[in-house]
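lol so apparently i was supposed to do this last week
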Amino acid sequence: MQFTSESIEHVVELLSTLPTIGKKTARRLAFHLLRQPQEFVDQFASAMVQMRTGVRECSVCCTFTDREVCAICSHEKRDRSVICVVEQPSDVMAIEKTNDYRGLYHVLHGALSPLDGIGPDDIRLHELLSRLNMQVHELILALNPNVEGEVTTQYIAKMVSPLAIPVTRIARGVPMGSDLEFADDATLARALEGRTPV
Ligand code: ZN
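anyway here it is w/ zinc ion bound
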């Protein structure tokens, strides 16, 4: 549909590659941006470029950060003997919001999914293994309650078993098939509290 302009169509194409954004929404967003002052659009575009170039994975827990080591990993009050394993950086934020957890995290950036060709080398499992030393007294698995989360939970439990580090999983307060980041604070806090050995 080329009835407007090539540059608008280009932006619409790009926006519609984003998750949950269809063509119709993409077009609405493009028109919205066109109605904003030039300065706003410049800031918008440069903020995105800056985010992409400036943000990296924390060298310890692999979450997104502007620094070599993220604020949580470098915080002196955090309990270094507990590591909570999650799939996405957004899960870290969800658990932090509960204000109930004082340990560290490890972000896998995904979960094992043999059907989609996502294997152990495609998520941050080596990085996790390299963190597991005498200091770690508990590994909490807080993965999404779906098939991929379950496969990953079992895989990690097996991977860690020779190290004799207790592995727990969060309780099933989180409904099956849902995403951790969408669970409400109370449910998540309860699930964390009621974790069980894997
Ligand atoms: Zn970190």
